[in-house]
Amino acid sequence: GPIAITFSEPMDAATLGAANMHLREYGSASDVEGVFAYDAQAQVLSFSPLADLSYATRYELTLDGAAIFSAATPQQPLQAQTSFVFTTAPAPGSGTPGGTADANAGTPDPEQKPPLQLAISYGDPEGHASATVRLEMTLPDGSQRQAQLPNATKQWRTELSPKVPDGTTVIVVPSHVRDGDTTYYTNGSGSDYPYFPEVEVGAASPTTAGIGYFVTRNYTNASSVLLGTLLAGPFMMQVANGDTATVAPAIPATTGGFVAPRIVPDEGVAGVVGDIITSNKGANGEKHFVSPKKSTEIPQDFVTLKAESTTATALTAEEFESQFEWEGGIEVPGEPLKRRVSRGGAGKTEVKIKLKAGAVIVDKMNVWVVWADITSEVKLLLTKQAATHTSTTGGYDFTHTIQPAGITDLTAEIPNLRGDYTIKPPNVPAGDISVFQQGVDLSKGADHRWDTTRRMRQKLINPSNINFAANHPAKNYNSYLNYPSERLVGNDDTHASEETNDPYSGLGKLKSTDSPALVPLNIEGSDGDTFELRVHWEEFTRLQIGSKWYIISNPYPWRLHFKFKKVGGVWEDNWSDLATDNAGF
């Protein structure tokens, strides 16, 4: 007979058909030929194959949700692509493969139980909470299946059809769950499905008189929640009531219930070698940890992560190793609950905790080791003489190339490091001696979380004791012999007008430029006088990660030694030199 799909509301018949709906053998790219027919009164779409389907074969029916519309709300498509997977009956006389006897006397035959049902209720007293939920399932044969559940407000209930076989592992991935919302997941509906007694929805401590399957979590983010593995016969999932207590009826001995662990930074990692950063996808996104490459300032070799319980009960190494395994990163000898990622070079490492049965991903942390490589293009030295003065100028254009390149790809899942900084970059430390810009506010030297900046020192060599103070700001013709003691300080950076600090619009690159000039006046000094101003810089890149600034590049040294001699009442350039080093100070 035909395959029938019943809709909950009238549909636009023009959007139902072969263009938007496909029946295929599972894993095949070829459609099964057949005829679609829609009964508007019954709201049923049927598909009649032109030839009989094969025995004992898995098929997948896919609906392109973005192209299928309701007749009642023609501007509103289905929420997402929806797939249904089913297996046809075995050939006559071959028996039923995989059949097992029910070891639990007095319980219904598992083969007769209804499809898995998921009920969701949100603990928002004003009824404003809503969410999109994705189910990720691994069937006993290792095949994967997904179901996208549409937006829900307050309470929503659905069935997965065809039914999920015993031994299926289910992960619920919620999104748009607001901080503090209490979300209840159950697979019961009371009298309608007696095999799955209903959990009391909305109760602070859910209870049930019978055997149910549920988990309660007080969300602080939209991470994945592993419900567990469905077993034949009675089963129970431990209930995590927030993060403070555990409430559940006695768990039968035949049950494999557990609470899934999560990945967090180890002690002494967050705020030291980097920090956790939210996803550019918001609450729907993944977890990210961002760290600079190993450097003199932060010499630790690794970012170390650990698995921890999502309840008040601590997770033991034995419990973890019995059901879970790590993927990605490097083993920590003697520490099965920990995993680490090298900071030796820029890159991205996906660290996962997986369920051993079915290899389902329980939690995931993307670790990004970030760095910038600085290159330069020279601006040639240029000297100009005027009636009253002589000027010499020179410098460089700098490019800071961010690595890994993928961290600035807005089409991908990346940490959200966009926008203005929220923590001011540091000033010259109060105790520093002979440092340029001592006591000056340097906060306007940055305008994004990513920032190009530079350190500066200079030495005036003035054997003729020329008096420059009468005609120039004192800082221009003075000695500041030291760089700031704090490496993060850009003490020659009071504004960002000569910087491009947005790598997302700059193809993964930051830009900066500097063209310092010195302009002695002809009224100063006497013929034969000479002087030299040796100015040194270190260009570098910094990034606000979490609540701190971090250096994410090696220092790029450069210098300009201004040299002048008074001849015939006019200052002449006396072989000033420009180079990418800090020699000759």
Task: Report what the structure shows.
With 585 residues, the chain is mainly beta. The protein has one helix at 317-323; strands at residues 3-6, 21-25, 34-39, 44-49, 58-63, 82-87, 117-122, 130-138, 144-153, 155-159, 169-175, 182-186, 214-218, 225-229, 240-241, 245-246, 262-265, 275-277, 287-292, 302-308, 324-327, 330-331, 338-342, 347-355, 361-385, 390-403, 450-461, 499-500, 509-514, 517-518, 530-545, 548-551, 556-567, 570-573, 577-579. The chain is elongated.
Low-confidence stretches: 95-133, 149-164, 172-258
Structural class, by secondary structure, is mainly beta
Shape: elongated
What is the count of helical runs? 1
Number of strands: 35
How far the N terminus sits from the C terminus, by CA atoms, comes to: 90 Å
- Taking all Cα atoms into account, the compactness measure Rg is 34 Å
Helix content: under 10%
- Roughly what is the average pLDDT, rounded to an integer? 75
Task: Report the major sheet.
Answer: 9 strands, mixed
Instruction: Give the percentage of residues in beta strands.
Output: 35-45%
Q: What attributes does this structure have?
A:
single chain; 585 residues; mainly beta; nine-stranded mixed sheet; six-stranded antiparallel sheet; 35 strands; 1% helix; 39% strand; elongated
